[in-house]
Design a protein that fits this description.
The structure is a single chain. The chain is of the alpha/beta class. It has 2 domains: 36 residues, no CATH class; 312 residues, Glycosidases (TIM Barrel), CATH 3.20.20.80. 34% of the residues lie in helices and 11% in strands. It is built from 12 helices and 9 strands. Helix 1 runs antiparallel to helix 2 and helix 11 packs parallel to helix 12. The termini are far apart.
Length: 396
């Protein structure tokens, strides 16, 4: 018998060899060997962990994990609304119109996880605010009303995490945490810990029942190129564009096997200009690695002269039509990698533009935007209103 096991042991080493690439083979062979022996003879070390920047799977081809998903026509929903009385109003809106989807804050603009997660991995880095006190009840209601649920995760704009871990953010020469004019801090797209933290939140959202993960603020802070040299932060030899695109690719390859779509919000004007090196956003590069791209093409966000409009906000049809023309021009060259185009459009009044430069938005203006999308061959869209009060009488 000793001769038999000695021979098997020799075979084990010949088959599995050495090195990290053979860890799986070692584990399988060891389990078979130990089973035959009736006791543990071979101990196999687990695969080594790494602290380097995560990398996407080489040549990981994108496939749509939900080819039978409906054409999404949705609205933005804050965690306050999702966990409060306004949810009933929004569900009635879904029931009474052709709207069929809600984009719900799961990690909000401050960086809070908006429901009482019990996952140790998330609690280690994250901070919860129980805006959605019973997330399971919410998901059940959405299912009962045939609502396609999309989890919005604000990625690199994360004041909460930046304050908790300044080493994940940007610091002044005196060591103090950098913040923009609004008091918001961002975390660093070069940091693997930041990547994995946000992907972990997305994975929990999948377990909760969300069908799509929408990442927002997938970028460096605005105007970063003007301040980068004066700040201290971890970085690699990668460009900012490659760091951001790398996160998107990594996230998609982590989440796609779970059966969930990945979408990214991006500045609308990114389709009309070359890659925004300063903030690290390349419209085509990001689009090639997501299932859905959502350019934020609110007419109010375009300044004088865009699409030959003196005041873009006052001509929603022409502004959206121009934005879609540029979007198609930017994405058509990527061929089979072109994602679903599902823009964010405007259902709010931009009074801050000043008298004479804006109009009040209602059903007519929303429908003008939808018509411009339809005329451009785009039938999916999302409506943005920060207070979640959407115009009545719209024909979606």
């Amino acid at each position: 018998m000793d001769i038999i096991f000695s021979t098997l042991l020799l075979l084990y080493h010949l088959i599995t060899g050495t090195g990290e690439d053979n860890v799986a083979a070692k584990q399988l062979s060891a389990s078979l060997f130990n089973a035959a022996a009736g006791k543990t003879i071979i101990q196999v070390e687990p695969a080594a962990t790494t602290t380097t920047t995560p990398e996407a799977v080489d040549n990981g081809l994108k496939t749509d994990p939900q080819p039978d998903a409906p054409a999404v026509k949705g609205v933005y929903v804050t965690a306050h609304s999702a966990g409060g009385s306004r949810l009933n109003t929004l569900l009635h809106l879904m029931d009474d119109t052709e709207l069929n989807s809600m984009v719900i804050d799961i990690k909000d603009d401050n960086g809070y996880i908006t429901y009482p997660t019990q996952t140790p991995e998330l609690l280690t880095l994250g901070t919860t605010q129980k805006y959605i006190a019973n997330i399971q009840s919410l998901m059940a209601k959405l299912k009962d009303h045939n609502v396609y649920p999309i989890a919005r995760i604000v990625v690199f704009k994360d004041t909460v995490l930046a304050k908790k871990h300044p080493e994940y953010s940007y610091r002044h020469s005196d060591g103090s945490l950098w913040a923009n004019g609004n008091g918001d801090s961002f975390v660093n797209p070069y940091m693997p810990e930041v990547w994995d933290y946000n992907v972990a939140i997305a994975k929990e959202a999948v377990k909760l029942g969300f069908k799509e993960i929408q990442f927002d603020y997938v970028r460096f802070p605005e105007g970063f190129e003007k301040k980068a040299d004066s700040l201290t932060f971890a970085k690699t030899d990668q460009s900012r564009v490659d760091a951001v695109a790398g996160f998107v690719k990594y996230a998609r390859e982590q989440l796609e096997p779970l059966g969930v779509r990945v979408s990214v919000d991006i500045f609308g004007y990114a389709a009309s200009v070359p890659a925004a090196e300063g903030i690290g956003q390349d419209f085509a590069k990001i689009s090639s690695d997501v299932h859905v791209i959502s350019p934020m093409i609110y007419p109010s966000h375009y300044s004088t002269g865009w699409f030959d409009q003196q005041d873009p906000d006052k001509n929603p049809y022409a502004t959206i039509a121009g934005a879609m023309k540029d979007t198609h021009k930017k994405l058509d060259p990527i061929g089979d990698e072109k994602p679903i185009i599902r823009p964010w459009i405007q259902d709010f009044t931009a009074s801050w533009l000043g008298k004479g430069h804006y109009i009040k938005y209602g059903a007519t203006e929303v429908q003008a935007q939808i018509k411009a999308l339809h005329d451009a061959g785009v039938d999916e869209y999302l409506l943005w209103n920060a207070s979640n009060r959407y115009s009545e009488g719209v024909k979606y």
